[in-house]
Amino acid sequence: MNTIINPVLRGFNPDPSIVRVEDDYYIATSTFEWFPGVQIHHSRDLLHWRLLKRPLDRVSQLDMRGNGDSDGVWAPCLTYDNGLFYLIYTDVKSHKGAFKDTHNYLVTAENIKGPWSEPVYLNSSGFDPSLFHDEDGRKWLLNMRWDFRKGKNKFGGIVIQEYSQEEGRLIGPVITIFEGTEIGFTEGPHVYKRNGYYYLLTAEGGTRYKHAVTVARSASLLGPYEVDPHHPMLTSSGSPELQLQKAGHGSLVETESGEWYMAHLCARPVDGFHCMLGRETALQKCYWDEEGWLRLEGGGNTPSAQVQAPQLPLHPFEPEPERDDFEEPLLGNQWNTLRLPPDPDWLSLSERLGFLRLAGRESLSSCHRQSLVARRQQAFRFEAETVIEFEPESFQQMAGLILYYNTEDYVYLRITHLEQHGRVIGIIQSDRGMYDELLEEDLLLPTDGPVFLKAVVNREVLQFYYAFEAGRWSPVGGEINIAHLSDEAKEPLRFTGTFIGMCVQDLGGTRRYADFDYFIYKEME
């Protein structure tokens, strides 16, 4: 019997929405301020997954200029009905303070690989929208409603409204169908119909260590909903010994043979608390008990790191290459940019064939125009390596290798120019917004020529290296604790994970560029 090893989507892949179309399975996950928006992974057996498509790939669908850290795409919902894929998503413009600006949209496609349509605006009353296709052909939008008022429960309940596909808009009254349980923080609604009941899955407890999945049901879509007497149906809360923490935000899928699985959010701390890989996606096998309630296979309500796989033919995929030589005309699927798509104005794979050329733009504090290309960290232990050609003329021009969480938390092995020394290499760290330069004196470099850069990460410890010849590495500084590259490092809530990549800044506005010849990301576990 084959075994699913959790998490199935490692590294920053939160808020899963799973759907089956014939013998294909798809999971959509949140991407926040990273572009392209929404990751869709594909599987045939629930064991092996590949990143297939990022559907929000143009500014007309997703314009995140100025979106703050952990804004952008929250909790997508992927469904399929009558030959059409439906993707619902939120573009959060602000989430700090009392208010939240949460604009919800719908895009569709006949093929999961696209083309995906221009967006239809739905509402802005809250986040975590989802679409339910009822058996009578009517479609319904659900989302949590945000209540900013003093003295109110800010998670103001799950609301529902009919969506008219013909008119391309919501119609009819907005109805509150569920106000949650004593766990609180009720969000992430998904509805499923089975044996005459409408089952409402919600996330509760907040997306940290008290996270949970609550199930309620009703004979009517509009309620009232009865809560599972043994709720929560899934949680890691109170079980710090579990490998998978923060379990919650579930969605369901039924296999061809009638087996049921729940995709859910989880996280794995590196030191008992900090989750540097961000929130990930796991699968649990489920069944329906005699009373018609959803239960975990094996009993209890805590997530398992290993789960029995469905009775399906194995369907592995080719592993992602460790090395990218930048020889293709477009960036590979693993690469992401901040808030905006790659544009020839600042990123080129053709000006110098076999190289990624980045023109320097705004600083690492910018929420507008950063020249940064990065991929997810997906293992606790890994090495990353690149080689750069960069000839700065000012301390305001920088380029190099970066571990990036957000505008307040990063560690940057950067090359720059100092008036008294010329070209140098050193380390910049921003730890919860506090800027520092970690070397007493930056290391001198030749005036020109390529420089090899390397990062070695072992859980919460980072060591940088540099070289002038391939393989002849010298350390830059000492070991660095990078636990601050995590959701838990600072309040208010943050929601992403660590990325590793390349970037260039030119704070003088002259757009000095750097060329990167290759990038290697090699997992060590």
Write a concise synopsis of the structure shown:
With 525 residues, this protein is mostly beta strands. The chain is built from no helices and 40 strands.
Number of strands: 40
Q: What is the C-alpha radius of gyration, as a whole number of Å?
A: 23 Å
**Average pLDDT across residues?**
97
Helical content band: under 10%
Termini Cα gap: 24 Å
Derived from helix and strand composition plus strand pairing, the structural class reads mainly beta
Number of helices: 0
Largest sheet composition: 9 strands, antiparallel
Strand content: over 45%
Tell the overall outline: globular
Low-confidence stretches: none
Describe the 3D structure.
The structure is a single chain. This protein is mainly β and 525 residues long. It is 0% helix and 49% strand. The protein is built from no helices and 40 strands. Strands 4, 26, 29, 31, 32, 33, 34, 35 and 39 form a nine-stranded antiparallel sheet that branches. A hairpin with a 5-residue loop joins strand 11 and strand 12. The two termini are 24 Å apart. The model has no long low-confidence stretch (mean pLDDT 97).
